[in-house]
Amino acid sequence: MNSNRKLPVLALIVPCYNEEEMLGIAIKKLVDFLADYVSRGLIAQKSFVLFIDDGSNDATWSILESANQECLKAIKLSHNVGSQHALIAGLTWVVNRVDCCISLDADLQDDISVMEQMIADYKVGSQIVYGVRGSRDTDQAMKKGSARLFYKIMKKMGVDLVYDHADFRLLSNKVLLELQKYKEVNLFLRGLFPLMGFKSSLVYYDRQERMAGETKYPLNKMLQLATNGITSFSNFPLKLITYAGFGIFVVTFVISLWVLFEKFFGYTVPGWASITLPIYFLGGIQLLALGIIGEYLGKIYLETKNRPRFHIEEEVDFEKMR
Ligand code: UDP
Ligand code: MG
Known about the structure:
This protein is of the alpha/beta class. The chain has helices at residues 20-39, 60-65, 83-93, 115-123, 141-156, 173-179, 189-196, 219-233, 236-265, 272-305, 318-321; strands spanning 10-16, 48-53, 72-77, 100-103, 128-135, 165-172, 200-206, 312-317. Strand 1 (10-16), helix 1 (20-39) and strand 2 form a beta-alpha-beta unit. Helix 9 packs antiparallel against helix 10.
């Protein structure tokens, strides 16, 4: 366990995609926070902020390159890989260079003042500290509603998630090392950490308004992330097909008995509804089932290729430049 005697080296890990409007504020705030923590003897002098430019096509990289702050490091990915892979790039880069790290979004929607509590929890033995959104008043009703539904579905499917926790968390170097063993391409980080089972704690905060720029997670990207979360951690949708199939089988069996009864003992008229309805219904169910199976098959296909999850094109380390 970590003791108070040695100050921990901390890295703040910030993925950025087209964040030119936000970066100036983010750099200043995070550098100030770090300097404050260092001066108050909470963390080691060698602590740093690591920005990951996730293939932005605006001025993000040039702002980072010219930031010229000693405690700032930046890596530029060769193309946009999405925040989960950008985060993994950062988490991989800091392995064995730090004692712990905190990942957070560039828009500072996650209240950075609670980082102090995270560090305090780490010092008394937490290997993972989850930042949990106590209130989400600043989120749009649609985002709040869809998030709530998502957590409910995940829970029903038996996936252990920390409710209302996104990617604002502290990880110890031990966890970072273990994370390297997870090679999956279909990444859903917030589902992985509870699975790892290390000693953890929660820190609550109120989610703030995005200070500048706009969300990089429109509805389609959010749906993609949610689908990935479900299909990467649960095969419940596949089971659902079996259950639905069984249910339909029972219903059609009963209908068949009725049809036979009518044929031999009743009066039958060729019916349009009884022919067309099953065609539509079964056709729909079959397509849905095929779609779900295809979703998993696609995942297996991507995983078997075992391709790298990101490529680092450039690095900037202002400490080394001095
Ligand atoms: N982000 C990224 N790559 C992407 C999309 C987003 O690195 O392809 C970063 C983005 O710059 C931000 C974080 O991921 O730092 C979260 O994105 P955002 O704040 O736009 O999402 P929201 O809070 O609206 O869900
Ligand atoms: Mg945000």
